[in-house]
Every structure is written in C-alpha cells, then in structure tokens.
Amino acid sequence: MTMDMFSPYYQLAKQLFPHAQIVLDRFHIIQHLSRAMNRVRIQIMNPFDRKSQEYRALKRYWKLLQQDSRKLSHKRFYRPAFRAHLTNQEILHQLLSYSDQLRQHYELYQLLLFHFQEKQTNHFFDLIEENLSAVHPIFQTVCRTFLKDRDKITNALELPYSNAKLEALTISSRSLSATLLDSGTLTTLRNAFSSL
C-alpha cells in the first residue's frame, strides 16, 4: 500500500490491512529532504547583511542548491548578481564558498539524493546514521524521521509501487474544480468531472 509520510495513516493502514506492506511515496521522501536543505540554506543566509553579495546570491540562486548536481547546466549566461558570465556550476561553487556548513549540508544532500535515486538502500541509511549527530537540527529531524520509517522507505526503494498517478489525478482535479468554480455553474463542474 503506497501512502504519504503522515504517521497517523500508518496505524490506520495496519488496522484495515494487517498483512499489507507500507510503501512511502518516493516524491514525499525527496520533498522532505529538499525542504530540509532549503531551510538550512535560509538559516545560513539570514545572518548575512541583506544588502551583501552573499545574502542576495543565496536568496536569488536557491534553486541551484536544490537541484541534482549531475543535472546542472554548463551554459554560460550573464548573471547580474555577480556582474559576470557564469555557468550554474560556477554560481554553485561561489554559493558554497560562503559557508562551510552550507557546503557540508549540500554535499550530504547530494549524496543522499544519489543513493536514493540509485536505490542504494544500505548506503542511504548508512550515510544518515554516520552524519546524524553532525548535521543541523533541521536535518536531524528529517533524518530521524527517515530512520523511524526505515522499513517503509526501504519498501519505496525496493518495490515498484508508487501513487504518482493518483497524486497527478488529485492535483488535476483540484485545479479543474478551482477553474470551474471561478467560471460559475455547477453543471459545468459536474460535466468536467464526469469526463475524468
């Protein structure tokens, strides 16, 4: 049974389906990790003066810290924040030079992403256990959650099941209902949902 990372669901699922294995949705696992990285970036960025180069660059190019490092663009563009033509890799290198703590968390984040995407369960959890005491409390919370849900995350990595199609349907139905509610009639809404 696939589900989101919401612990009250676990007990309910076990009560209703006692022999089912719980598989956490991979998207939600990565989302937890990504949000932790972003919150650490904000914690590191905030002590800088708001007008400083460091603060502005960390605020403007935050998505580069979230992105898989293997997918960074090699194209060179003019970057107003740096007043130079730079690649995304060069910007990332500059961002990481602002803080050793940011660099350490970024490297850990990238390794965790890699092991997760390559479905290397043991490496993923070994890395979490090795770094648990050395990381920012925000990361510790996420890591402890992952360790607590180890069996469910292992299932997510080893089994082919996902609720991606259900999530996509939910998102499209929400946006459709919002659009149709704006347009007005209940008949239009009913007809649109019957076409799904």
From TrEMBL:
<dbReference type="InterPro" id="IPR047951">
    <property type="entry name" value="Transpos_ISL3"/>
</dbReference>
<dbReference type="InterPro" id="IPR002560">
    <property type="entry name" value="Transposase_DDE"/>
</dbReference>
<protein>
    <submittedName>
        <fullName>Transposase</fullName>
    </submittedName>
</protein>
<feature type="domain" description="Transposase IS204/IS1001/IS1096/IS1165 DDE">
    <location>
        <begin position="2"/>
        <end position="169"/>
    </location>
</feature>
<dbReference type="Pfam" id="PF01610">
    <property type="entry name" value="DDE_Tnp_ISL3"/>
</dbReference>
